[in-house]
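> agent: user asked for a holo structure of the chain below bound to zinc ion. Plan: (1) validate sequence alphabet, (2) canonicalize SMILES, (3) run complex prediction with ligand conditioning, (4) return tokens. Step 1... ok. Step 2... ok. Step 3 dispatched.
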Amino acid sequence: MDELSTVLKARALINKVAPTGVPVPIEAYAGEIGAVLRKDKSLGPDEAGYSFEKDGRHYICVNANDRPERQRFTACHEIAHIVLGLPSDHEQLPWWSYAKRPLNEILCDVFAAELLLPYGLFKRFVDKADISLAAIDELAGQFETSTTAAGSRFAAVAGFPCAFVLSEKGAVRYASRSTTLRQGKAWITPRMALPAGSVCARLHGGGVCDGPEETAADLWFSSWDRGGTLLEDARHLQQWNQTIALLWFEDEELPPPSTDRSQADEEGEQGLAELDGILPWPGKKRRR
Ligand SMILES: [Zn+2]
């Protein structure tokens, strides 16, 4: 089982339920796979939920003491265990920790985020939203899910280059990148320490920030030869020693590769380009 087949199986279930309203009805997902949803008040604060099979029927129990959006995520995570046929590995860690999360658990989280924030439905909201963690908070509220889940899906469906990065204890645990950023080969090294000079590193070190700040793109992206300046909107979640960040380019485009840039510089040195009758129109992109 890998991430792509996980996503495809989640989308197959979404297509059967075909949710149109927000928040999406998780009872409909459970019903579609013939599972019964129950709430359990006896679970401790680090136990999100579990599922079991009895007389050929699946039962999903979520921690009734958790906040409603957490209960929704747990239910979808358990649906993932059932649909993907992956055994639970909930023993050695609290649900919120990414530091030593087993692959199967990460795949069930990916599946759950797909169900809660279905591609087509969520993309329509993202395309109209501002680009900021505050906008992601608002989307999370509308879809009744966590800011972390909404942020990771925000980057996945965004039509412009952006990434959502989750770090824990000062190291990157998960990065979600938009298609354009992946096509531009902007690679965020898994498990790397928060880059020195980034807003995330400062917040993790006890510093503060109030709003997006400019960060050099090559601080975040490895083997990056396009240069450029990112906007970094970051937040430290003290409770879990996690730092989240949204990264994007201000003009919503990738900087050109360095080879294109040196060619443009050469043309500049050789004087004006030949007149072609096409008036240059000022674009969104600032000239270097
Ligand atoms: Zn699990």
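> agent: step 4 complete. Summary for user: Residues 68-84 form the longest helix (17 residues). The pocket of zinc ion is lined by residues 77, 81, 88, 90, 105, 108 (CB under 6 Å).
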